[in-house]
Amino acid sequence: MIQGPRRQSSGKIRITPLHTAHERLETLNYPSIVAACGTRYFVDQNGLITGLSTFGDTRGQRRVDCPYQKPDIVDVLAAMEWIEHRGLIRQKTGTACSYSAKHWAERFLGRYIPNGAAIIAFDRCGFTQHVSSDWRSQLNTMIAVSRNSYKSLPECSCNSNDWPNNRVAGLFAGDGLNER
Question: Looking at residue 23, what is its pLDDT?
Answer without folding.
Answer: 82
